[in-house]
Amino acid sequence: MHYAILGNGVAGIEAALGLRARDSEARITLVSAEHEHFFSRPALMYVFAGQTTLRDTEPYDRGLYDRMRFERRSGRVASLDAPGHALVFDDGSRLGYDKLLLAVGSKGRCAPWPDAEGEGLHYFVTLRDLEALDRAARKGMRAAVVGGGLIGVEVAEILHDRGLHVTFVIREGWYFPAALDANESALVAEHMRDHGIDVRTGATVDRVVRADDGRIRALRLAGGVELAADLVVSSIGVEPSTGFLAGGALKLAANGAVETDDALRTSVPDVWAAGDCANVTWVDASRRPEQLWYTARDQGRAAARSMLGDEIAYHRGTWYNSAKFFDLEWTTAGHVPATVGPDGSAVAPLPGYRTWFQRVPGRFESQRIVVKGDRVVGFNMLGSRWNHEPFLEWIHERRSLEWVLKHLAQAQFDEELSPGFRIHAGASVS
Amino acid sequence: MQAGLMNTYQQPMSSRLWPAWVLSALLFAAYVLLYFGPLPALGLRFDLLQRVAEVAGQALGLPVVLHSKWILYGTVYTLAMIAGGAFVLRRHGNSRYQRVRTVTVVAVQVLFAFMLPIVLQVFGRKEYYFSYFWPLKIEYFYPSVILEQPFLIVFWSFAGSLVAFPLLAYFLGKRFYCSWVCGCGGLANTAGEPFRHLSSKSARAWSIEKVSIHTVLFLALVATAIVWINWAVGRAHPDFARFAFQVQDWYGFAIGAMFAGVLGVGLYPLMGTRVWCRFGCPMAALLGLVQKLGRFRITVKKDMCISCGNCSTYCEMGIDVRAYAMANQSFTRASCVGCGMCAHVCPRGVLKLENKPLRWKAGQPIRVYAVDL
Q1: What is the per-residue pLDDT across A143-152, written as a single tens digit (0 to 9) for each?
Q2: Inter-chain contact B370–A317, Cβ cutoff 8 Å?
Q3: How far is the alpha carbon of B5 from chain A, nearest alpha carbon, in Å?
Q4: Could you report the predicted ipTM of this complex, rounded to two decimals?
């Protein structure tokens, strides 16, 4: 049996480990054009900042591939020959397989603005993106970072750390509206401005302005304002790196992701997909990829079981996530409805929902608890550390707001000696 | 809670580039001069540092008893800790744990390992370092040294090493000493901060460490026992007395001077700051064994690790913290000195140092909840 895994990221390597754990004989080949060792993609910002080396971000020791007898093949795959059970590389060579896992991940969504593509336009998703930005970004330059999401804030932080003047251009009325409400976002924006970032909300990009020699000169916003810029980083989201599959036998969704069933099988025999490139069913029944580290790992493991013949159904549990906005840590769990839609328009509060919120006086810290009827269904915690596991348990146990507030300190996960959770006078329910 | 970014690898000094090698060579030279004084083999016929101390002492008009290279060394050491402490507060002071810990370890150095010994000497008493204990300070169990001291100090030394330390290590972990009190750890966690990431995280280093640190502990116990036996029976057995003095000398040279001093600090810029604490310190070995049985633990928040490697990179003891975080495994490692930096630099708040019992089910991934929301 020859298992080929296209993609040496977290989904790919976890699948390979899952296969090897159950099948000590099989030939397992990992194919990657990016790097010969598995590294942590969310850690790329620390590599750029010189806080870690790329090698520090490799989660496993380098002996792993030998110990596990994983073969490695580096190169770019040009197409999939599904009937012939082979990957075709751009140099024309082929790699046959008995079973294939597509774990190709995603890349930065193409900047859609006129004159954007070319020198000075950057993304920050892949190792190549990191290398390009590392070569280009010099102290004293002006950078425009477009896109108010998680990658945008990381790029703003590392460019600012390097000594660039950073303008953070956000289309929506506030930063990260998919997860933060107006109060929380104001707090994050204030924190970013404190760090010296020029945060522009409600700013739609009109075009990139290039000088006669082709270099980027400015970013023009709708309304005519021009932001002087030497480089532009587009962080308006990611899309599956499935271009090489287009037009082939394998079914892709309109969003470019590989369609999979509950067992992560694709539309063609003996091919599975996992991670950022795979469309899965969400709790709300929508079909989207889960572009998260934890779920890519879980999907990789689930795909391995499926490839080994287990009857599985991949289902994500209750939502949780965490991130960091400069020094502010953010933990979320359960159902925290967005208060602004993807198009920037306000979303009416869901019927029967209430929100408990407090901003801790004198600190960049807030807590938001979402209540549906008489039970708590969601948490959004900013600026302090929380263990999401009790949150998920309490949601599962249908705890009331009063009960949760009484026990909330148990879930606090800050370093010892940190200020403990307490309810302040300004706490409100709305 | 991490404050901004550290740019560690952008500094040549912190990246094992040539300035690091130069500094390492200078530190080696300074410690060799300190411990071994005149080096006729190298053409140095007088004790250079002692001469410097005497000239400086006279220039400053200090009492003659302070005209000693050891006072000079203590001064430089303490100043390095104060400067390094200020650096740490600037960099990590947004964490209250780091703030309190850094201020404490520097204050202990200034008061108990620097000022108090000087005061004692100025008043004609034997010097005594109240923040050092057997078996790190092995001579504080040597009868010839400790029994010269007043009863209170004898009590402090024995009750400290034999009663208080095991109890404190059981309830708080060895960090109460190694990263809150001890001067060796104190220098590492202040002036040594720019080098903490250089510790080897390899499994090989871990296996060497387990053998070497427990070997030193064994040697310390044996040396202490021999010295006590000699105290009891040495007068009647001059051959044994000679042997006991040789053991004492040899331990002082090999472990006290070479390992703890020359290698321990000299290797800072190349192998990280805790070479002595990790591979050699008998106190760390002893407290580590207690720690394994005790309450201290690093709790791992489940399924939240992004495997970025900051925790492992910045572990000065070379513990591959990430491996535990990725495996959802709360853990206690004997070597962990509880500096708290892994928790501090974690961008997802996955780690927490604790002495309390685990609250949530250990070892398993988060249940997949089927919640109808």
Answers
A1: 999 998 999 9
A2: yes
A3: 6
A4: 0.95
Q: Is B371 on the interface with A (CB under 8 A)?
A: yes
The mean pLDDT value for A156-161 works out to 96
> What confidence tier does A178 reach under pLDDT thresholds 50, 70, 90?
confident
Token code pair at residue B113: 């390992």
- Do residue B220 and residue B325 come from a single domain? no
Task: Determine the pLDDT at residue A297.
Answer: 95
Tell me the whole-structure pTM to 2 decimals.
0.95
pLDDT recorded at residue A344: 64
A121-234 matches A320-429 in fold: no
Token pair recorded at residue B103: 């201020």
CB contact under 8 A, B202 and A61: yes
Query: Chain A partners of B348 at a C-beta cutoff of 8 Å?
Result: 322-324, 329
Residues B278 and B335 in one domain: no
Both tokens of residue A412?
């606090």
How many domains is chain B partitioned into structurally? 2
pLDDT in the model for residue A282: 87
Look at residue A6 and give its three-state secondary structure. Answer: strand
Shortest Cα–Cα distance, B93 to chain A (Å): 12
Write out the two tokens for A58. Answer: 């490799």
pLDDT at B368: 62
- Whole-Å CA distances, A322 to B34, B69, B237: 51, 53, 70
Give the CATH number of domain A121-234: 3.50.50.60
Query: Which A positions 52-81 lie with beta carbon below 8 A of chain B?
Result: 52-53, 56-59, 61
| Residue partners of B305: CB distance under 8 A and separation at least 6 | B322, B325, B326, B348, B350
Contact B50, B68 (CB under 8 A): yes
Mean pLDDT of chain A: 95
Task: Give the separation between CA B262 and CA A188, rounded to whole angstroms.
Answer: 48
Q: How far is CA B232 from CA A83, B158, B240, B244, B251, in A?
A: 88, 18, 11, 12, 20
Torsions phi, psi for A270 (to 5 deg): 65, 20
Alpha carbons A114 and B1: distance in angstroms, whole number: 40
Host domain of residue B333: 297-354
H helix intervals, B126-182: 143-146, 151-159, 165-172, 175-178
Q: What is the pLDDT of residues A263-273, one digit of tens each?
A: 999 999 999 99
Question: Hey, which residues 55-84 in chain B have their CB within 8 Å of chain A?
Answer: none
> What percentage of chain A carries pLDDT values higher than 90?
91
Nearest residue on chain A to B101, alpha-carbon basis: A417
What is the chain A residue with the closest CA to B310? A52
Segments of chain B with pLDDT less than 50: 1-2, 4
Segment 177-216 of chain B within 8 Å of chain A by CB: 197, 202-203
**B306 vs A293, A317, A392: nearest CB:** A293
Nearest to A300 by CA among A2, A127, A101: A101
Cβ-count burial A208-236 (b if 16+ within 10 Å, e if not): bbbeeeeebbbbbbeeeeebebbbbbbbb
* Out of A46, A318, A329, closest to residue B369 by CB: A318
Measure CB to CB from residue A388 to each of B6, B96, B304 and give the nearest one.
B304
CATH at B337: 3.30.70.20
CATH topology of domain A320-429: Enolase-like; domain 1 (3.30.390)
pLDDT of residue A233: 98
Residue A395 contacts B, CB cutoff 8 Å: yes
Across the interface, whether the CB atoms of B373 and A293 are under 8 A apart is answered: no
Smallest Cβ–Cβ distance between B309 and the set A57, A326, A395 belongs to A57
Domain A2-107+238-307 coded CATH 3.50.50.60: yes
How many CA atoms lie within 13 Å of B364's alpha carbon, on the beta-carbon side?
Answer: 5
